[in-house]
Amino acid sequence: RKEVEQDPGPFNVPEGATVAFNCTYSNSASQSFFWYRQDCRKEPKLLMSVYSSGNEDGRFTAQLNRASQYISLLIRDSKLSDSATYLCVVRGGANNLFFGTGTRLTVIP
Amino acid sequence: GAVVSQHPSRVICKSGTSVKIECRSLDFQATTMFWYRQFPKQSLMLMATSNEGSKATYEQGVEKDKFLINHASLTLSTLTVTSAHPEDSSFYICSGGVEEGYTFGSGTRLTVV
To answer: Distance between CA atoms of A5 and A100, rounded to whole angstroms?
Structure first.
């Protein structure tokens, strides 16, 4: 079983739409969770950390459900510039990061 | 925030040659650096963890004699792809940091011809 699993998509949504991504992780002892954004042929960049209490940054909301071992990312009022691949990332016990396959989002004008 | 500088950004080499990729931590001391590989349309896969002053830890299936890692100082980790073959063509990227949310280098796109 993979450490982190995500729906690869693609998600094609119109501008202004709300879109949600989920991912699940297998190691119940994982401590830290993140969403990264990766543009084509570029390195991943941290979008936001995911806390147990949930956190919001502008149009982006991340939530963690430890009991069910899943993480979510909600994007409201989608912009064209939101088009990218969103990576669910979990930090393991040795401080290394495990990546989901990424969910590709395309926001359509 | 943590800044990681990686170079070269792109390299084309002939089969059988070796390629060295460098990652430098510019504003923090990296006791640990992670090396990933990403094939087209796939996720990043951890290859190895480099530890300053000691041997690297390799993930299962990654040949340590082929992918040589050196982490001789707190600011520099290198990955050398030895005797490169076309199937080694990939995007190699390092990551390090001192707080949550590790920073990535800009990646090295290796093409072996």
So the answer is: 5
Mean pLDDT for each 10-residue chunk of chain B (113 residues)?
A: 89 97 89 90 87 89 94 92 96 80 88 96
* Exposure of B64 in the CB half-sphere (CA atoms within 13 A): 10
d(CA B96, CA B113): 30
Count Cα neighbours of B106 within 13 Å in the Cβ-side half-sphere.
6
- Compute the count of residue pairs across chains A and B with CB atoms less than 8 Å apart: 43
B106 contacts in A (CB within 8 Å)? 42-43
- A102 has which bridge partners? none
For residue B32, the chain A residues in CB contact (below 8 A) are 95
Please, how many CA atoms are within 13 Å of residue B41, restricted to the half-sphere of its CB?
Answer: 3
Q: Rounded CA gap, B60 and A11, in Å?
A: 33
| Contact assessment for residue A59 and residue A47, using Cβ atoms and an 8 Å cutoff | no
